[in-house]
Each structure stands twice: as C-alpha cells, then as structure tokens.
Amino acid sequence: MAEAHQAVAFQFTVSPEGVDLRLSHAALKQVYLAGLRSWKKKITRLRNSLVTGVFPASPASWLVMAAAILASQASRLDPSMGLIGKIKEHLPASAYLSEPARAGLGALAFATLLWLGLVVTMRGALRALLCYHGWMGEEHGRPSHATKCWLALVKIFAGRRPMLYSYQASLPRLPVPPVSDTVQRYLESMRPLLSDSHFQRAAALGRDFERSLGPRLQWYLTLKSWWATNYVSDWWEEYVYLRGRGPLMVNSNYYAMDFLYVTPTPLQAARAGNVVHAVLLYRRLLNREQIKPGRGGWGGHPTGGAPGQGGRSGAERGGASAGGCALMIQGTLPMCSAQYERMFNTTRVPGVEADSLQHRRDSRHIAVFHAGRFFRVGLYHGGRLLGPRELQAQFQRILDDPAPPAPGEETLAALTAGPREPWARARRTYFGSGRNQDSLRAVEQAAFFLTLDTTEQGLLGPEPGRALDRYAKALLHGQCHDRPPMTDVFQLGYGADGHCKGELDPSIPPPQKLQWEIPEEDKGKFCLTYEAAMTRLFREGRTETVRSCSIESCNFVRAMTDSAQSAAQRLALFRVAAAKHQTLYRRAMTGAGIDRHLFCLYVVSKYLGVDSPFLREDAHRFGANIRTALLDLRALFNLPPK
Predict the structure, then answer these.
(1) Strands (E) located in 337-448
(2) Helix (H, G, I), strand (E, B) or coil at 305
(3) How far is Cα 265 from Cα 493, in angstroms, rounded to an integer?
(4) Which neighbouring-strand residues pair with 23?
(5) How many structural domains is the chain composed of?
(6) Per residue in 1-13, pLDDT tens?
(7) Domain range holding 231?
(8) What is the C-alpha separation between 437 and 597, in angstroms, rounded?
(9) Is the separation of the CB atoms in 600 and 615 below 8 Å?
(10) Residue 539: phi, psi to the nearest 5?
(11) Residue 456 CB: number of other CB atoms within 10 A?
C-alpha cells in the first residue's frame, strides 16, 4: 500500500464542506520530468533524422548556399540563368507578394533545389565509390595508385562529422551473384568432400539447375534486391534465427573476455557500479547517434539469463561490453551500423513456431540475478541517471540481502536454454498472468541483464590453460541458468578504498526483488554452431559463410600427415592454401559468397512450390538450424501440396 500511495499524484475527498484536493508535489515533479525527457528525445530524434537524411551535406551548407544566392541577387547577378525568374512566376499567392519578397522566395527555392541536387549527387557518387572492392586483393600497406586515388575520392565525398547512421543511405546494396558462379563455386567447395561418383552426380544436378530452374529463381531474387534494402537479411533473420527451434545456447551465444591480469578493485559491487554506469553512458550516446564512425565502439554482448531473455541461457537480451568494433575500415570506409539499433532494450520472445523481437525505445531499469534471485534495479532518480557510487550501493544491497531464492527460482532461467518450442509453451502456460507475468515483464523490458556471480571467475589457479578454458565456458554458458559479471571500464576509476567515486543519495528506492510462482518442469540441451564472415560493407549486411575446406587446404593437411613430404613442400602447400582461404574470405565479404545465395534460392523455390533436386539433396549446406526452419515452409506459406 505504501508504494501505491506514493504513486498517486493527487488525492481528493468530497465532504459537505466541498472538495479537499491534495497534490503530491514529488509525483507531479516526476510526471513533469518524464514528459520533459520524452520531448527532448523526440526533438533529438527529429534533428538526427534531418542531419542524417541530408548527409554528406549538412543543414548549415544550405544556409551558406541560400546566403550566397541571395547575395548574388542583391548584386543583380543571376547564377540560375533565368530559373529564379520562372520560379517567381509559379509561386503560390504571388499576386499578394511584393517584388522583393517574390525575388527572395524564388532565390530560396532555387538554392534549395540546387542544394538537394548536390546532396543527391554526392550521395550517389559515394555509393558508386563504395562499390569498389579491388583494394581487398592488394598487399596490406602497399596500395596501388588506383586505390590511392579511390581513397582520396572517398574522403572528398564522405563528408565531415558523420553521426552513427549517416552513411547508411550511401552504402551499396548486397549484389546477387550469378547462378553460374554460385554453382561452380559450390561444386569446387564440395569436391574434396565427395567421392568421384557422388561428385559427378552433384555436378550433373548443378548443371541442370543452372540451365532450368535456376534462372527463374534468380529473377525473383534480383527483383527483391532492387526493392528491398538487402535481399538476404530479412529471410535470414526470420528463417534461420527466429524460426530456428534449436536452443540458442550455444548456437547463437558469444562472449567477450574480461581483464585477465588486472583487478582494479576487489569489491564486486563497485565493479558492477562502474560497468553499468559506463554501459548506460554508452547507451545514451547510442540513442543520440553521437557515436562517431571511425572511432569504433562496443560490440553487442548478450547479457541475459532469465526467463524470456536467454542470456547465458539463450542470448536473447541485448547488451554491451568493452571492446573494439570499428564502424569504418582504417577510418575511411564506412560499414553498416544497423546492428546497433537493437543493442539495448531488446528481447527475443519465444514462440511455438517462430520467435519475435521485442524492442523498446527506452528502458529505465535493469534486471539483476544473484544467488538464484531476480531483482529490478531502477537507473534514474529525480530525473537523472544514477552515478557509479549509487549503483554500487544498490548492488551491495542485493549482495547483502539474505533472502533465499523461492523454490525453483535458482534454475528458472534454464527454461531459456532448451529448444524454443517447449520454452514458448511453458511461457504461455506459466507466465501469462499474476506475479510471473509481472516479473517476466520486468526482466524482458530491462535495458540489459546483469549477473552478480557467487564464484570468482578469471585466470585463476596454477594451470593457466585449463583456467582459461574454465573461464571461457563460464562466459559462454555458465551454469546454464546464470551469467557472470560484465567487463570493467578504467575511465570511471575507484577510490583508495576500492569503492566507486561519487556521492550517495539516501532517498533512492532500494532494488525490488521479483516474485515467481514456479512449477516443477524444467530441461535443456546443447547444439552445434558455425563461423561466418561479415558483409557489413553493404547496407544491412550480416554474415556469409567462408567454406574453408578447399582442395588447397585438404592438400596441405594431407602433406602434414605424409612423412614423405618435405618441410619445403609443406610450406609451399600451406601458402597456396592460405592464399585460397584469403580469396574465399574476400569473396564472402564482397557479396560473392555462395551459401546465402543458395539459401535465398531455396526459400524462393519453396514460395513457388517447385522442387529442385540440386537444392534438396544438398540442403545440408544450410546447417541444422536452417534445415529445421525450412522443413515446413510450404505449410507456413499456405502452399498447396505438391
């Protein structure tokens, strides 16, 4: 009742003497501050959209151009060669305007059209320049004269002071490789894996596909590449990730190492306070789009570990960790920044047939897990972000809280570690109302998830190798229902006593322990994973597979196991294999890979309800998750039975 009483902004009672109205000034202040923050964010987003929308030009450049055109008009010069006069004649309500007013409006209209034309030209020129990838085949540190000229042009058209998403509209679209190239490279990659008879069959199927069904499927992909921003990304996210029914751990999880040899403070709450505050400062820069391309940033780091989130048990939460993730190659070539949009305030919600992504523009709390218990920790007080010292005090309250977890609460997050369908059904059955729904909502709507571990992690013990393995496993999956603390940031610093710097506000509400009503069911298992190359040189580019098992790499491996081969022969084969691998990697990064193209051709074939022996017999190329997701495409698309 106390919390509800504090939440009411005003109270009134009706009596014979009239209405007694009592206002809660504290509550009204919070309402005012919330509204003020909301409007500030709207204005910031509008300003950023304007600045990004005209980049590589700037609104200030329009003012300069308009001033120059008006000055020329005042000097009786006509840089428009008569166009301003024609614009004056067609101005609305021109009969009610004086001649100087019409001349000024005509000059401003001409300046605006000229400025927009320059914006479109600069953006188109930059996009055309970014389609060149010949630099990737040159020796590092020794660019050709053509590449040097190209880099100079990129710098000229790249503009000044870019924001996080300034280059998105200038990035080229991912090209659709020719079917003949994809089939040829696929067969080349399969040659060392198949016997002669099986390879001959695969080659025959490939040639038949290239002549018959391939061009028809390719036409649809080409049409999609013209219409959509990226012909792969939406299908890849939908059918590979969201419709994949296998466990996210360890198929999608990844991790970043903490400091191995440095312990800035022995106080766990202090480290957590600095980490969370630093991440929130980064989130604020991200929301304002003030992260500059070229300066790098933090890569996404899953920080979940609770029902609906996954985290260590499913990698469903967005988060951040210290580490480089440059947005531009060598400070010159921009890369796609779309992945930053859902780094925070994002949850992957399980579904029976397909998951969905839930993203909030803002979140004012985080979820914390410690000793089998879940807590909700507010991040703001009195309209301001909590400082490191104040966050440390909140985390210390959690560490000092002696309350035991509710029965089953300690391993509750393991539900997210299993296949998606059982977790989706359990979520629908047991988390749809009451305390469970409220607590799950607090976890899912958090900015990110933090675990305060009960055991020390790191490079510990007399055997560094095994200690590193244990540390990596703890980072990757922990105990399948928890997650270790995140990395630290030195810039905030600590006091001589190891505590975070700053003062405490004693009026900050304490963390709120989440309540659960838990049944007896629970389970999970592990699946495979894969390695990929990035395609972020293209707009909304994601990944492509590098088929490193080539004829050249197989020859090198055989030489290493053949005692008759000399060191010189092995070295020569190694260099050939390495050169081949570099070629494959460059192809993958520049849109000439084969796996995503084959995947999209397969999806189109299912949309059309046609069967391809070439695509069907080699469906294993897509991996276990994709096979599972694509098995029932016909039913999903309501296609008639074949």
Answers:
(1) 346-349, 356-359, 365-370, 373-378, 380-381, 384-385
(2) coil
(3) 9
(4) 10
(5) 4
(6) 334 444 455 555 5
(7) 179-246+535-636
(8) 41
(9) no
(10) -65, 130
(11) 10
